[in-house]
Amino acid sequence: MDAVVGDPRRGHPVALFGRAAAALEKRLYGDARPNGVAHVAICVGAAAGLGALASAAGRTMTGSPKAAQAMTGVTKDGVGGPRAVVEIGVTAAATWAVLGGTTLAREGVRMAESLEAKDIEAARRRLPHLCGRDPRALEAPELARATVESLAENTSDAVVAPLFWGAVAGVPGLLAYRAINTLDAMVGHRSPRYERFGWAAAKLDDVANYVPARITGLLAVLAAPDRGRALRVLRRDGHRHPSPNAGRCEAAFAGALDVTLGGVNVYGSRIEHRPEMGDGPPPEVRDIRRAVRLTRTVSLTAAAIAVLVPALWPRHARRNRARGA
């Protein structure tokens, strides 16, 4: 659904959540960590609760087991019958709502098109769709690096992490993760206003992305033309990034694309010096499309794993129980 339809231009569920979270922030804001903890607890709890209600509704909109068996000829638990159809529909809708892989890839392509046409101003206007870096003084090489780094990090945030938490915790996991990630983008960055209020959102996002970021890095290694080089860069440089998670994604992409990421980043009045990752030259404009292809490959692989592992695991568990019996 995400690949075919993409994100709606208006009324996106994540945007609606963002507006609700911003309204709650106005009521709860205070320059203290407890205020931020309350804000995160209410927002994430509401998202997870909505997911639980949606799952429960899907399980109850199917009629009796006897009716299901009569209509489909399946077992009384409803597997493969109306109950399964409704539950799959609810899960599919929730997954589509939280995935952002298609939009991410499209933004990467648009950046490539603008830079290939040497339209620097257009590329600068597009960069805020990908990251929070100040684009006003960036030239083509810096714009290309920012795009590749954003594609790497957001492949985890927009695709792999939602699929991971959906596989682990179903619809509540999907919605809770997207709430956590959205709050981190809204209040989790360092600034005088959010240094303490946004602490809880930033820390919870780090926890939620710890495993998915490492899965993203390994999938990028598997998709790399030279897997040995990609793995070497991931293991050597992944921990050097200030973020405990983004560095794994960026290092793996750097090794897979044979480029060097990192350097000086400007965020408004704040300047950060990021360690360099990789052994190749700095990214060029042509590397953006290569990064987009890597993003799509990692995303499709993650989707396949998210479907196959939960589907095969119960069968494996039932087989082991039968042997034990």
Give an overview in words:
Converts cobyric acid to cobinamide by the addition of aminopropanol on the F carboxylic group. By secondary structure, this protein is mainly alpha-helical. It has one domain (2-60, 99-324). It has twelve helices and two strands, in the order H-H-H-H-H-H-H-H-H-H-H-E-E-H. It has helices spanning 2-5, 13-28, 33-60, 65-72, 82-98, 101-116, 120-126, 140-187, 199-223, 227-237, 246-257, 286-324; strands at residues 261-267, 270-277. Strand 1 (261-267) and strand 2 form a beta hairpin. Helix 5 crosses helix 8 (140-187), helix 8 (140-187) packs antiparallel against helix 11 and helix 9 packs antiparallel against helix 10.
Detail the topology: elements first, then pairings.
Elements: H1 2-5, H2 13-28, H3 33-60, H4 65-72, H5 82-98, H6 101-116, H7 120-126, H8 140-187, H9 199-223, H10 227-237, H11 246-257, E1 261-267, E2 270-277, H12 286-324
Antiparallel strand pairs: 1-2
Helix pairs in contact: 2-3, 2-8, 3-5, 3-8, 5-8, 6-7, 6-8, 6-12, 8-9, 8-11, 8-12, 9-10, 9-11, 9-12, 10-11
Describe, in short, the structure shown:
With 325 residues, the chain is mainly alpha-helical.
Question: How many DSSP-defined strands?
Answer: 2
Residues in β-strands, percent: under 5%
Low-confidence segments:
63-78
Rg measurement, Å: 21 Å
Q: What is the global morphology?
A: globular
Total number of helices? 12
- Mean pLDDT value: 88
Widest sheet: strand ordering: 1-2
Estimate nothing, just give the exact number of structural domains.
1
What level of helicity do the residues show? Answer: over 70%
How would a crystallographer describe the biggest sheet? Answer: 2 strands, antiparallel
What string, H for helix and E for strand, traces the elements in order? Answer: HHHHHHHHHHHEEH
Distance between the ends: 42 Å
Briefly note the structural class of the backbone: mainly alpha
Organism: Nonomuraea africana
Pathway: Cofactor biosynthesis; adenosylcobalamin biosynthesis
Protein name: Cobalamin biosynthesis protein CobD
Membrane topology: Multi-pass membrane protein
